[in-house]
Design a protein that fits this description.
The complex is a heterodimer of chains A (127) and B (105). By secondary structure, chain A is an all-alpha fold. Chain A has one domain. Helix content of chain A is 49%, strand content 2%. Chain A has helices at residues 4-24, 32-53, 80-98, and one strand spanning 60-62. The longest helix of chain A is centred in the middle third of the chain and has 22 residues, at 32-53. Chain B starts with a helix and ends with a helix. The chains are: A mainly alpha (127), B mainly alpha (105).
Amino acid sequence: MTAAYPAMSIAAAVIVVIVELAWLRTGIFRMRSYWVAMAVVFAFQIPIDGWMTKLSDPIVIYNPDALSGLRFPLDIPTEEFAYAFAMVTLAIMCWERAGPAAESAPSESAPPEPASPEPASPEPGVE
Amino acid sequence: MDRYQYAILLVGCLVLTLPLELILGARVWRQPRRLLGAVVPVVLIFGTWDAWSISRGHWTFSERLTTGVTLPFDLPVEEVLFFVAIPICGLLTFGAVRNVLGEKR
């Protein structure tokens, strides 16, 4: 039987990519910021996830039958990076999808990016 | 204090990433509704996967390093916190990098 966790983690990563390309189309994969951010996320995953999965005193205890057996770096099950890719990418996709327009908070301290051209007359009620 | 280790780790992640919002201009916490729209799908999808994996015995959690407070389907409350905190850290990283690079999209 195929180990469940690597199979599902890779499947999740693939599905997230497909959902982005075929459905949500937020364009994050063409953004430099996305790839730099993911590199940073993976870098921080190593100490944090490493702490959670360290075999000497783990927070998360895996059934070996569910794992690929690869544990690198530290004691991290390697498939966990596919899992993290899927989870963080999904969050960023949904964030982009929710878009700045979804937040119609009244006047914030900093003005948002210029919206559609405003009429020349000053808006009433703006502080 | 050991039983709070997992929870403290996650809260620590949120505290350590706060400067991304406050100094590097990530603008994630300042858009709570949009943040909710990004986090809820992760909690639902990954929470379901987690509950299923726990039920199948793919993984368990240290009784000593967790509070023992569980939600339906034997989900430790820390796991739900994980599905909230880690995406927020990712969004803050993305928002900060984007602001620093000046990338609008």
